[in-house]
Amino acid sequence: MQYLLLIYRNEADLAHANPDERKKVSAEYAAYTQSIIQSGHFKAGDGLQPTTTATTVRVRDGKTLTTDGPFAETREQLAGYYLVDAKDLDTALGLAARIPGAKTGSIEVRPVMIYDN
Q1: Any alpha helices (H) in 1-117, and if so which ranges?
Q2: What is the structure's pLDDT at 75?
């Protein structure tokens, strides 16, 4: 089954990090990504640009409305994701716990919807 591991963090923390701290975090993510590629769990994954680059789209009464930035005001922002293949939720939770961002932010684990054709 596929699971989406959504990585949330406080963007301000990264903005205030010095170059050595950023390099360390990048190296941790690179090592983690390589480990799940080698284990066969990796399907896809990417980091996201800051929320200042986001645009939220809504359609109301047939009109498309756009708003700069994300809709919700939260302490943590969606920073990236991994799409993984795992035999069960426990395996997916174990993969999520190893994501470097779990130490300072949170990881939301969600099963991917399976559609009947």
Answers
A1: 11-15, 19-39, 89-97
A2: 79
